[in-house]
C-alpha cells in the first residue's frame, strides 16, 4: 500500500512540475532587499515577466542649464525612442502658422506664459501620434497643475508615465555653463563655449548667422530663475515620488550622469542600448540642446 501511495505522489509531482515549468520560466524573481535603490523608487512587484517589455514613457526634469538636451540626445542615440520638447513644438506650430501657433505667438509677443490647456493640447496631439511607441518628454510639465492634467490625459489614452528622471547638477556648475552659452534665436540651437562651441566663433554652424547672448544669462538674473524653478519643481518631485516612478541622477558633467540613466533604462525596461556615441556640437544643436 505504501509503495502504491509513493508512486501516485511521484506521478502527481511530475505532472505539477511540467504544468508549472512554463509559468516559472516566464518570470524572474526579484529580491527587494537587494534591489539597487534610487531616491523615489521602490520595489513593488516580486515577479516581472521577462518576455514583456514596458514601453518607455519618460519625463526628463532638471534645472535650466542641467543638460536635459544633452541627455535627451544621448538617450535617443542609444535607444529607440522619440523626444518631445515643448519648446520645439511651440516653434513648429508658429512656423507652420497653425491655429494654436498663432495663439502661442500672441502670448510670446506679450511676454506671457502659454496657457496650460494649449500646452496640454499640443503635447497630447504629439503623444497620440507616438502611441504604442517609446517617447521622452522634455520641458513639460513645469507645474503641479500641468502634471496632474497631463497624467489625466495620458491615463485616458492608455500610455501613462512610467519613469521620471531628475537631473541634479551643482549650482556653481550650472552658472558657469550659462555664462558660456550662446543662442541662435531663429532655430533655438544652443552653443556652449566650454564643451560644444560653434565651428566659427559667434556664428551658427548651419546658417552662418550671428549668435546672441540671452539677456537673462547673467549670474544675478539666473540665480532668481533657479530659485523660481526650485519652488515650482519641489511639488513636482514629491508628486512623482509618491507614484514610485522618480529617480535622481547627480553629477557635474553629462558623462557622470548618463551612465546612471542608461543603467536604469536597461534594468527597468529590459532594453539593450545601441553603441554609445558622444554627441558632437552640430548634432546636439540640431536637436536644440538647451544645456
UniProtKB/TrEMBL annotation:
Its main location: mitochondrion. Its EC number is 2.7.4.10. Residues 181-216 form the Adenylate kinase active site lid domain. Residues 180-217 are annotated as: LID. GO terms for molecular function: AMP kinase activity; ATP binding; GTP binding; nucleoside triphosphate adenylate kinase activity. GTP binds at residues 65-70, 181, 190-191, 254. Keywords: GTP-binding, Kinase, Mitochondrion, Nucleotide-binding, Transferase. One of its GO terms (biological process) is GTP metabolic process. It is found in: Mitochondrion matrix. Residues 85-114 are annotated as: NMPbind. GO terms for cellular component: mitochondrial matrix. It catalyses: a ribonucleoside 5'-triphosphate + AMP = a ribonucleoside 5'-diphosphate + ADP. AMP binds at residues 86, 91, 139-142, 146, 214, 225. Pfam families: ADK, ADK_lid. Consists of three domains, a large central CORE domain and two small peripheral domains, NMPbind and LID, which undergo movements during catalysis. The LID domain closes over the site of phosphoryl transfer upon GTP binding. Assembling and dissambling the active center during each catalytic cycle provides an effective means to prevent GTP hydrolysis. Involved in maintaining the homeostasis of cellular nucleotides by catalyzing the interconversion of nucleoside phosphates. Has GTP:AMP phosphotransferase and ITP:AMP phosphotransferase activities. Belongs to the adenylate kinase family. AK3 subfamily. Monomer. This is GTP:AMP phosphotransferase, mitochondrial.
